[in-house]
Amino acid sequence: MSPSISAEDKLDYVKSKIGEYPNFPKEGILFRDIFGALTDPKACVYLRDLLVDHIRESAPEAEVIVGLDSRGFLFNLLIATELGLGCAPIRKKGKLAGEVVSVEYKLEYGIDTFELQKSAIKPGQKVVVVDDLLATGGSLVAATELIGKVGGVVVESLVVMELVGLEGRKRLDGKVHSLIKY
Predict the structure, then answer these.
(1) Are 161 and 31 in contact (CB under 8 A)?
(2) What's the whole-model pTM score?
(3) CATH number of the domain residue 26 falls in
(4) E-assigned strands of 17-92?
(5) What is the pLDDT of residues 133-152, one digit of tens each?
(6) Domain, as residue range, for 52
(7) Is the model's pLDDT at 21 over the cut of 80?
(8) Within a domain: residue 120?
(9) Which Pfam families does the entry mention?
């Protein structure tokens, strides 16, 4: 942990490292890229601290941290190891071995499928879902449905960045927290 720096200062530092790419992936889109922050060791530590501290305060009952394919994976292991919790991935179709449950969800350009290993979460376990971005909310809705299919209980969805204008939060039930809102 980095106790000598305030949470606000840590967040400001992380924000300063997020890249902005106009007209990517298509004309008229301003793409905000978390990888700029992840290439900076200090920003990585601050980001971990902010996520972990939030879960300690908001979801201390959490037992499993689930990361969404693929950028959510960058955070769930960091958080889980710091808190001494289990972690599990939700992956795109065909990427997980063993018995899985699946759910289809809509994208702005089509349909995709998420999968979760049936053994990853025990019935009744309390789960925090982590991803880099909340946009339309489709992936977090699908993740919540998958976790429910294996008997897990989502206690919170936690994202690094939220694109508020897309109103994805309105599609989600339960607690949702974003570190940065655009």
Answers:
(1) no
(2) 0.94
(3) 3.40.50.2020
(4) 19-22, 30-33, 64-68, 86-92
(5) 999 999 999 999 999 999 99
(6) 7-181
(7) yes
(8) yes
(9) Pribosyltran
Catalytic option among 71, 115, 156, 162:
71
Amino acid at position 24, single letter: F
Q: Is residue 176 part of a domain?
A: yes
> Residue 149: left if φ>0, alpha if ψ -120 to 50, beta else—which one?
alpha
Q: How many domains does the chain have?
A: 1
Q: Where do the DSSP E strands lie in 2-151?
A: 19-22, 30-33, 64-68, 86-92, 100-107, 110-117, 126-134
Cα distances from 119 to residues 61, 87, 98, 154, 172, in angstroms, run 20, 12, 9, 16, 25
* Active site annotation includes 108: yes
Q: Among this protein's residues, is 56 annotated catalytic?
A: no
Terminal Cα distance for the chain, rounded: 27
